[in-house]
Design brief:
CATH architecture of one domain: 2-Layer Sandwich
Shape: globular
Number of helices: 17
Distance between the termini: 37 Å
Largest sheet: 7 strands, mixed
CATH superfamily of one domain: Bira Bifunctional Protein, Domain 2
Bound molecules: glycyl-adenosine-5'-phosphate
CATH topology of one domain: BirA Bifunctional Protein, domain 2
């Protein structure tokens, strides 16, 4: 059982591997740094999270539609969006260890250490100085701060640093000849631009009227300098983004709306509100007039899971300028053409997946006076659980497996079901607890006589007798999206 947050996090990571949720990519070749694969249960959980987001954003809002744009896009898009020139991290190398670090991350780690040691004044001063240097993109000042605060390389232990340089986070690759002669294309670093460049297509083909939104779930790629904390910061990850197009001047009211709506989405799964907080950005990107992060308390502190940004008309105006195509909407209510303003909601699917695992994971001590006992359990919301129920014949004989198969075949048309007849019933219950299956259906000798089964509930471990004919309704009710979305 975990004694502290570090241990808890380690246990979650090994649990994720042991039960087929997340594996290191290319593991048999010693892995590929900051790239992960989702296993058989991870893929199910991830799909259920996507469904939850898609239903909440697209299905529940008549004025939001979803698209699926390509990962490769015209390279000019990234020039227009500012990613070619400005999507950089300041980095520094240690000449002895040859290790590369993000300069701001080294400073942030130092700030955390000052805070831990109760040196609040020093922490605040360094935070202020770092923010100023980042805002002014003053790279020599960042290096000076690293030196002044005597930050050493965690590997070599020395202070033998290079200068701080900007490092672009986009991956590029070559494609067959492009019209303008250049064949370099980028792997998209955000899904948002695929939405912006389809603004007119969707607006016209869907006869959308402002305000309306376009949502999308998809892969994004960033060559992160330091990747750490498991699937928290990856080089290949997934985003669930929505751009909401509004009339200029109304953006702050929509910003407030989406800030509240998105937090409600997080809390609807039953997570304690204490685990969440808003973090308003004091330093705004040049295109934003308001921005906030929704942060969750991970074992390593409060960290961003989702960003809500008021992006003004920056992106559409840039694409209008770079493509030469008008990115405007004629608003019949005010009889005017304008470039819409945009409120963006952007959540990292992998970060939310990690949040879900951490928040649901519990190592329970079930020991009694005469017996030591424990279990690992994932208290996943039933709508998110990979398996909705498991069918378990009490023994492998006397016709019980056949009866269990009958039930399985009936239920699997509607629900993702598990079937298990190996090991004792106690061990099988524990296995299902560990992967978050909300209910186990046990078929015993009485089932053959009266067509009833035992339902065993994951969280309370309570059992009840239920008619087989009732199972479908009962499970449907318990796993229904209605429990969260309405
Ligand atoms: N379109 C806006 C945008 O991309 P962002 O704050 O850079 O904004 C949005 O990213 C979300 O994507 C973050 O809140 C985070 O959850 C997720 N994210 C960003 N970089 C990530 C990475 N390297 N690995 C995993 N998730 C990441």
């Amino acid at each position: 059982m975990a004694k502290n947050n570090d241990e808890l996090f380690k246990n979650v990571i090994s649990h994720a591997k042991e039960y087929g949720f997340v594996f290191q990519s290319s593991e048999i070749y010693d892995g590929l740094s900051a790239v992960y694969d989702y296993g058989q249960l991870g893929a199910e959980l991830k799909n259920n999270i996507k469904t939850y987001w898609w239903k909440a954003m697209v299905q529940m809002n008549e004025n939001i539609v979803g698209i699926d744009s390509a990962i490769f896009m015209h390279p000019k898009i990234w020039k227009a969006s500012g990613h070619v020139d400005g999507f950089n991290d300041p980095m520094i190398d240690n000449k002895d260890s040859k290790k590369r670090y993000r300069a701001d991350q080294l400073l942030e780690d130092k700030i955390s250490r000052y805070e831990k040691d109760g040196k609040t004044d020093k922490a605040e001063k360094l935070q202020h100085d770092m923010d100023e240097a980042l805002k002014a993109e003053d790279l020599p000042r960042l290096k000076a701060l690293i030196e002044e605060h005597e930050i050493v390389c965690p590997v070599s232990g020395t202070r033998n640093w290079t200068d701080v340089r900007q490092f672009n986070l986009m991956f590029s690759t070559q494609m067959g000849a492009m019209a303008d002669g250049s064949d370099e294309v980028y792997l998209r670093p955000e899904t948002a631009q695929g939405i912006f460049v389809n603004f007119l297509n969707v607006q016209k083909s869907g006869r959308m009227k402002i305000p309306f939104g376009i949502a999308q779930i998809g892969k994004a790629f960033r060559n992160e300098v330091i990747a750490r904390q498991f699937i928290m910061r990856m080089r290949e990850f997934e985003q669930m983004e929505m751009q909401f197009f509004v009339r200029p001047g109304t953006e702050m009211e929509w910003y407030k709306h989406w800030k509240e709506t998105r937090l409600k989405w997080h809390l609807a799964l039953g997570t304690s509100p204490d685990k969440y907080r808003f973090h308003d950005h004091s330093k705004l990107a040049h295109y934003a007039n308001a921005a906030v992060d929704i942060e969750f308390e991970f074992p390593f502190g409060f960290k961003e899971v989702e960003g809500i940004h008021s992006r003004t008309d920056f992106d559409l105006s840039q694409h209008q300028e770079f493509s030469g195509k008008k990115m405007q909407f004629f608003d019949p209510e005010i009889n005017q053409n304008y470039v819409p303003y945009v409120i963006e909601t952007s959540i990292g699917l992998d970060r939310f997946f990690l949040l879900t695992l951490i928040n649901s994971f519990e190592e329970q001590d079930l020991s009694t006076a005469d017996k030591q006992d424990s279990r690992s359990v994932l208290h996943l919301h039933p709508a998110l659980a990979p398996y909705k129920a498991a069918v378990l014949p009490l023994t492998k004989k006397d016709g019980l497996p056949e009866k269990a198969r009958e039930i399985m075949n009936r239920l699997k048309l509607d629900f993702n079901m598990a079937y298990d007849e190996k090991d004792s019933i106690g061990k099988r219950y524990r296995r299902q607890d560990a992967i978050g299956t909300p209910f186990c259906i046990t078929v015993d000798h009485q089932s053959l006589e009266d067509n009833t089964v035992t339902i065993r509930h994951r969280d309370s471990m309570e059992q009840e007798r239920v008619a087989i004919d009732e199972l479908e309704n009962m499970i449907a009710k318990l796993v229904s999206w209605k429990n969260i979305l309405s």
